[in-house]
């Protein structure tokens, strides 16, 4: 079982988009995935709220959304994606696993996220910074995205439309405009995450 922790030091970072999209992408690949929503505000807008929307629409979900999961129960899954409350737990107290830190590319958010990344560099599995809610039409964000040279998740209306229906990027038949472009873009982030996990696995096996 591989644990993935989505953590940010402040709200509005695109954490829900990252959690739901990554869990859906892994499930779409045939992996057994669980999502643990440890964010106490989840009922208002996170994965728990998304689950309620899916149930109201009678839509099957590709993974369970749980409030907690024991270590023994976690072994039934290939991946467990954890949605942590923003700033609710000091970064150095996060359990073992890959930590992904989503951040918009405005100066204040980006500075906070890089501080979190720096505090996690000692971990056996290095953390990943995920540029999210990015607006490439803004010159400052476009320049920073170019410097980072990693896949970004743009600020797309499709995400809100999908999650409001209890759907994900990998749900067919939603009719949402921009879905294909958003999914194609997010696939670059999924590939980056899987490559990072694979590289670490090869390093540990060597």
Describe this structure in words.
The protein is an alpha/beta fold and 206 residues long. The protein has a single domain, classed as P-loop containing nucleotide triphosphate hydrolases (Rossmann fold, 3-Layer(aba) Sandwich). The chain is 44% helix and 13% strand. A six-stranded parallel β-sheet has the order 3-2-4-1-5-6, with helices on both faces. Helix 5 links the parallel strand 5 (98-103) and strand 6. The longest helix has 27 residues, at 179-205.
Quick overview:
With 206 residues, the chain is α/β, with parallel strands linked by helices. The protein has a single domain, classed as P-loop containing nucleotide triphosphate hydrolases (Rossmann fold, 3-Layer(aba) Sandwich), CATH 3.40.50.300.
